[in-house]
């Protein structure tokens, strides 16, 4: 591979420094500047962003309503790393959020969930994503039952406060809201 020109290397370092600053400040007012820095970094690196940078760019694209751009980023991410569990989970969650616009999104989300499930068969993330899918497909009671069964296995260990809170929900709708 050809090395980045020195000017580009300096620009990349500068952009990553800006991103670190904006991330540390965590201010809503910085979102536009952060998105601009991420887009510049994406262009200068030829799309070779770190996992965190890819996630941030996809997230900020979604926040500004550019779902097409966000989905392109996730697709590129998965083209490079088809078994990246982070990309699978985040893209599936994004597709679920868009399911009301196009039911094909649920089909794609389920496909990504199936791959995630084969790679991480028994994790909270996998079970929570399945519950979100079931709820989006119109099966909130089944979603709550499925996730409750998973969480109940950990009830005595108090692994996570969310597990405890979820176990105490009385309706499927309450459980889904908690997720």
How would you concisely characterize the structure shown here?
By secondary structure, the protein is mainly alpha-helical. 73% of the residues lie in helices and 0% in strands.
Write up this protein.
This protein is an all-alpha fold. The chain is 73% helix and 0% strand. The chain has helices at residues 6-25, 31-44, 51-63, 67-80, 85-97, 104-119, 124-136, 140-152, 161-167, 172-178. Helix 7 packs antiparallel against helix 8 (140-152). It is elongated and about 55 Å long.
Key features?
179 residues, elongated, single chain, mainly alpha, 0% strand, 73% helix, 10 helices
Assign the structural class, choosing from mainly alpha, mainly beta, alpha/beta, alpha+beta, or little secondary structure: mainly alpha
End-to-end separation in angstroms reads: 44 Å
| Number of continuous helical runs | 10
Strand/helix succession: HHHHHHHHHH
Strands, helices and their partners?
Elements: H1 6-25, H2 31-44, H3 51-63, H4 67-80, H5 85-97, H6 104-119, H7 124-136, H8 140-152, H9 161-167, H10 172-178
Helix pairs in contact: 1-2, 2-3, 3-4, 4-5, 5-6, 5-7, 6-7, 7-8, 8-10
């Amino acid at each position: 591979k050809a090395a980045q020109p020195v000017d580009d290397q300096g620009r990349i370092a500068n952009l990553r420094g800006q991103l670190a600053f904006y991330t540390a400040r965590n201010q809503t007012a910085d979102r536009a500047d952060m998105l601009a820095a991420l887009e510049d970094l994406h262009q200068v690196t030829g799309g070779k962003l770190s996992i965190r940078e890819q996630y941030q760019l996809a997230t900020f694209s979604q926040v500004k309503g550019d779902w097409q751009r966000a989905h392109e980023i996730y697709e590129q991410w998965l083209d490079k790393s088809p078994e990246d569990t982070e990309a699978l989970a985040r893209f599936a969650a994004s597709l679920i959020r868009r399911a009301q616009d196009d039911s094909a999104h649920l089909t794609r989300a389920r496909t990504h969930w199936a791959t995630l499930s084969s790679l991480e068969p028994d994790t909270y993330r996998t079970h929570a994503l399945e519950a979100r899918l079931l709820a989006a497909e119109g099966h909130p009671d089944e979603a709550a039952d499925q996730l409750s069964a998973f969480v109940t296995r950990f009830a005595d260990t108090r692994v996570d406060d969310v597990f405890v809170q979820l176990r105490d929900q009385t309706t499927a709708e309450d459980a889904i809201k908690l997720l």
